[in-house]
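Duplicate of #3305? Posting structure anyway:
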């Protein structure tokens, strides 16, 4: 144990300041607190002990691992020892007496010591605990006794008379029940409990036996009644026996056996559901008595009484509810309800006896609910009134005593009846709410069709009692709920009545809208006086529901809908104005202002619709409202975010509501974009994105005519004049939106849209093809060149001009002439960008575009000149040579840009090779390109690595030309093709290895040797007797021998191995040619000799093979 560190400071438990262990807390003045000091000291000690425990655990884990490893190693060593100690019988010399050379008697045979046995750890034997063994024996003994009794009752019963049977059963039962007291005194409690359970079970079997033989005429009784009597007698005997012997088991058995007594009696009396409920209630009462005697302790019989009583009470409630449901008259319903109330009263009495306040609260709640359910079952079967009204009045009647009990009863018991009354009132409240929803739907159905419903139509589908029931429910809740909630309750009641009244009194449908507006006004007025967030949320929620219903109903007629929207605007603006400087400015004012502003434009639109104006007039009026709202967002000092949000929302909807007019919608959308840009408020970006999407929808066909249709053919699409105007307005809006003051910046932002307007304007003016595509291409190329030459241009602005250039280029490629012009323009623009652009990526892109366009120009020019495939290939190769020349000049000053030109040059040469049309032209193309590559390798100042690459490429191109020439001349000798390739690869390997002596010979000469040997080997392997290839076989053998000798002289592994393998393969092939001439015994004899020789000198051969492998591995 470590030494205890004294505590000098501790946190004061009263003020949480740091206190001294000697003087106490300096803040609150209290003296030292020993308990707090002890807590601090023990915390420190616990931390230290935990650290020590972790250290010890880690050390124990390490030792355990070492022990496991040692055990594994020990077992392995022991196994090896056992394997080595196999017993062998010794060979003894014959004794003298056996050979007859002596007279000495035979000695005893020598004793051979047995090998020592290695110690091994015995496996620990698993043993049962004493308690487990006892439990097993008890269970088996009890089971045997029960089985014996059952066998006796079922089998041996008929072999004795009635008297004998009774004597035997009584004696057996008495004998079994006499043993537990003796076992109890000797401390064998388990045995005593087991035998007592068996004896009590035998008493039940005695009862069954008496019934089976009709002892004393017991079969005259009903079977259920007799069974109840047997259970009752057995329970009494068990209870007395348990008290006599002092065992808890018989008392538990007595309680368990007593449970079915009353239900069996009810079954014997053929009781109805009420009788069954009463019987189960009696069982519940019995268990409550047992619990009361045991002071409600949840142990032993108490635990069983809790379980059985709960089950009985639950079943009693279920049965009583079933009887209440099936009652056909008020009288029978009253009886069934009385049974339900009785079981609730019994449970309540039990909680009172237990003196448990929480349980009393729940029991009182259940009793209140039971009374309400019982009374409801009675009133439901009464004639006057409707069920909803009767239930509402019943809830009101129960609410009065429940409210009194809430005050008079102690806490928390008083909350039980109060909660039960609230739950009961919820049933008619739910019914009234459902009826209100149905009435609201009826109002909506009466207001159909939308904007064309006759004003004289009335609402149907409800009755007068529903509003009365709603009032009764509200009064019940008003009695139960606190006074501070009554205003909100009254407001909710007004909403429900507004929904119910039109249908209940057959009023015209528009009265629903009128009542909804009135409720909205009242709710907003109360919301302005709300003092808490919860009340404010409720009142605003009521206002929202009433407003939504009024709007949905008012849509039956444009004039009614306009009036509702105007009223909402008036209510919202008035409320917002009244509370703008009060405490509710941040919630009520915001909500009211938002609702009023949203309803204003709708009122204007619907009012004009009611006045039978055209859609164009409505669209213009709504755009004017949008302008006014945007202006108000700049000028007003109150509710600026709300005005701005409504203005942005209305502006964002321009693409939709502009559909109603005949004016070009694109102009309205572009104007809305300008308004949003000028507004410069939060969330303007979202509205701008929506408007841009809408503008694309309006101008989509025209944009497709300019940007997509040119891809399909030489056509000129028609464009409406409003589209270029809208695009220009959008350009102005884009320049304004980013808050740029400099002229250059504004032009940068607006330039893509202005560029787009050029082809749109030409299309609107009806310009013929290919004026439009070429103009689009020129605009795109001009923009790209200008922006790449300008300083610090964001890359994103290049994308629109690139798209325009691609679209223009695609539109001009349908005919050779315009295509030649278009790619010539691209070549010029690419050369300008590659020469003067400020960024290297832009210059690289420019050179790529220029060189590729030059290739296309060459191909198109050849096509216009009607050249054949060879001439076209030469023209394309000339373009590749131009790119190679550009690579020559760029390599000195801009080596990274030169790579782009070089890539285009090589790719173009490959294309020229592929389109040449014949192997002869292809051979010429490959040979000419090898000349170009050779000249490129001669550039002064070229690094050696790059020059070597060009030399290798030139040699490969020349080799390809040679192969193509041979193919054109129909040469079939394989070595004519592979020989130059092998020589070229051999020269390249020698050149590389001269500079890198450490390079393996396989990497330097392996490809050349493979190219030289493998094709010839393949030809020889595929030869036939008709064409034995004698010269080729001889030359291949000579070549392989020469390579082997040269490799051995140069000490190179690749020539030695490859030459030797090829020479061996040639020899095997020659052997295979004469194999059939050799006698069959010769191969067998040779094989045998080889095997014998190898077996005789096996170790020597192994050493020779190792030396050979080592010698070969030492070669370079």
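Output from current build:
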């Amino acid at each position: 144990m470590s030494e205890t560190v004294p505590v000098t400071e501790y946190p004061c438990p009263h003020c949480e300041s740091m206190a001294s262990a000697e003087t106490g807390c300096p803040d609150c003045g209290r003296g030292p607190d020993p308990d707090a000091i002890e807590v601090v000291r023990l915390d420190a000690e616990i931390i230290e002990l935990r650290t020590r425990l972790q250290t010890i655990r880690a050390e124990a884990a390490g030792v355990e691992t070492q022990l496991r490893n040692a055990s594994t190693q020990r077992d392995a060593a022991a196994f090896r020892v056992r394997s080595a100690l196999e017993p062998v019988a010794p060979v003894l010399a014959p004794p003298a007496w056996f050979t007859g050379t002596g007279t000495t008697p035979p000695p005893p045979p020598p004793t051979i010591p047995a090998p020592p046995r290695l110690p091994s750890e015995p496996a620990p034997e698993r043993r049962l605990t004493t308690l487990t063994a006892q439990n097993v024996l008890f269970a088996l003994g009890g089971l045997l006794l029960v089985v014996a009794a059952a066998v006796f009752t079922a089998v041996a019963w008929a072999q004795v008379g009635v008297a004998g049977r009774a004597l035997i059963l009584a004696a057996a039962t008495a004998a079994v029940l006499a043993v537990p007291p003796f076992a109890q005194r000797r401390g064998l409690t388990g045995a005593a409990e087991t035998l007592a359970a068996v004896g009590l079970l035998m008493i039940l079997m005695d009862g069954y036996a008496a019934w089976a033989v009709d002892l004393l005429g017991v079969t005259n009784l009903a079977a259920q009644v007799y069974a109840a009597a047997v259970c009752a007698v057995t329970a009494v005997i068990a209870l007395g026996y348990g008290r006599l012997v002092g065992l808890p088991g018989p008392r538990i058995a007595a309680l368990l056996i007593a449970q079915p007594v009353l239900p069996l009696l009810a079954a014997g009396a053929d009781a109805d559901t009420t009788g069954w409920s009463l019987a189960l209630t009696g069982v519940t009462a019995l268990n409550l008595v047992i619990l009361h005697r045991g002071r409600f302790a949840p142990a032993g019989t108490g635990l069983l009484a809790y379980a059985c009583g709960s089950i009985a009470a639950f079943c009693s409630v279920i049965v009583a509810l079933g009887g209440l449901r099936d009652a056909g008259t008020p009288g029978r319903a009253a009886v069934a309800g009385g049974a339900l109330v009785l079981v609730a009263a019994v449970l309540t009495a039990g909680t009172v006896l237990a003196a448990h306040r929480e349980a009393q609260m729940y029991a009182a709640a259940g009793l209140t609910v039971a009374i309400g359910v019982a009374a409801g079952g009675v009133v439901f079967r009464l004639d006057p009134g409707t069920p909803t009204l009767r239930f509402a009045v019943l809830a009101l009647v129960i609410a009065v005593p429940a409210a009194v009990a809430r005050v008079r009863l102690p806490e928390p018991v008083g909350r039980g009846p109060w909660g039960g009354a609230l739950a009961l009132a919820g049933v008619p409240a739910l019914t009234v709410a459902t009826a209100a929803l149905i009435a609201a739907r009826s109002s909506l159905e009466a207001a159909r069709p939308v904007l064309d419903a006759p004003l004289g139509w009335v609402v149907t589908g409800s009755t007068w009692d529903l509003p009365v029931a709603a009032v009764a429910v509200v009064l019940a809740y008003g009695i139960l709920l606190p006074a501070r909630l009554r205003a909100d309750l009254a407001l909710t009641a007004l909403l429900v009545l507004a929904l119910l009244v039109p249908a209940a009194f057959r009023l015209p449908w528009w009265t629903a809208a009128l009542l909804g507006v009135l409720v909205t006004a009242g709710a907003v007025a109360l919301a302005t006086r709300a003092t808490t967030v919860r009340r404010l949320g409720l009142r605003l929620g009521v206002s929202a529901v009433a407003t939504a219903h009024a709007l949905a109903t008012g849509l039956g007629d444009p004039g009614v809908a306009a009036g509702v929207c105007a009223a909402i605007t008036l209510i919202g603006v008035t409320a917002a104005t009244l509370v703008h400087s009060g405490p509710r400015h941040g919630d009520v004012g915001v909500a009211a202002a938002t609702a009023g502003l949203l309803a204003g434009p709708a009122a204007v639109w619907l009012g004009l619709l009611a006045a039978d104006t055209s859609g164009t007039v409505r669209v213009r009026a709504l755009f004017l409202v949008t302008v006014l709202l945007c202006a108000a967002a700049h000028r007003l000092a109150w509710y600026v975010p709300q005005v701005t949000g409504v203005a942005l929302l209305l502006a964002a909807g321009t693409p939709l509501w502009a559909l109603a007019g005949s004016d070009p919608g694109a102009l309205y959308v572009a104007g809305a974009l300008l308004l949003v840009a000028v507004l410069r408020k939060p969330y303007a970006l979202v509205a701008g994105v929506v408007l841009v999407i809408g503008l694309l929808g309006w101008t989509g066909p025209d944009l497709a005519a300019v940007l997509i249709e040119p891809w399909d053919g030489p056509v000129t699409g028609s464009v409406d004049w409003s589209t270029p105007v809208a695009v220009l307005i959008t350009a102005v809006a884009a320049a304004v939106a980013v808050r740029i003051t400099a002229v250059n910046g504004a032009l940068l932002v607006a330039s893509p849209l202005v560029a787009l307007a050029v082809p749109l304007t030409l299309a609107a003016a009806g310009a013929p093809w290919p004026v439009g595509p070429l103009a689009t291409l020129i605009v795109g190329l001009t923009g790209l060149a200008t922006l790449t030459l300008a300083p610090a241009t964001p890359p994103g602005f290049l994308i629109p001009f690139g798209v325009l250039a691609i679209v223009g280029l695609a539109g001009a490629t349908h005919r050779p002439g315009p295509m030649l012009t278009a790619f010539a323009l691209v070549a010029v623009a690419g050369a300008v960008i590659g020469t003067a652009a400020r960024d290297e990526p832009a210059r690289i892109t420019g050179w790529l575009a220029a060189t590729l366009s030059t290739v296309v120009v060459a191909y198109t020019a050849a096509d216009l000149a009607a050249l054949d495939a060879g001439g076209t290939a030469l023209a394309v190769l000339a373009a590749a040579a131009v790119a190679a020349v550009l690579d020559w000049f760029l390599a000195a000053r801009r080596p990274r840009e030169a790579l782009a030109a070089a890539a285009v040059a090589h790719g173009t040469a490959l294309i020229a090779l592929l389109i040449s049309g014949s192997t002869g032209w292809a051979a010429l193309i490959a040979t000419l390109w090898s000349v170009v590559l050779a000249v490129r390798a001669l550039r002064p100042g070229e690094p050696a690595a790059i020059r070597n690459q060009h030399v290798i490429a030139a040699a490969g191109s020349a080799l390809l030309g040679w192969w193509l020439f041979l193919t054109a001349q129909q040469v079939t000798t394989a070595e004519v093709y592979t020989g130059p390739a092998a020589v070229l690869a051999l020269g390249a390997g020698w050149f590389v290895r001269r500079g890198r002596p450490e390079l393996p010979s396989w990497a330097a000469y392996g490809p050349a040797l493979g190219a030289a040997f493998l094709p010839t080997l393949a030809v020889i392997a595929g030869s036939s007797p008709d064409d034995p290839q004698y010269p080729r076989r001889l030359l291949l053998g000579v070549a392989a021998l020469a390579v082997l000798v040269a490799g051995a002289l140069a000490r190179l592994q690749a020539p030695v191995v490859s030459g030797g393998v090829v020479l061996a393969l040639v020899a095997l092939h020659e052997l295979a040619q004469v194999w059939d001439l050799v006698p069959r015994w010769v191969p067998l004899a040779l094989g045998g000799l080889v095997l014998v020789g190898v077996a005789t000198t096996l170790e020597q051969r192994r050493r020779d093979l190792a030396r050979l492998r080592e010698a070969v591995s030492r070669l370079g």
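Confirmed duplicate; merging threads. Residues 9-74 form one domain. The two ends are 72 Å apart (CA to CA).
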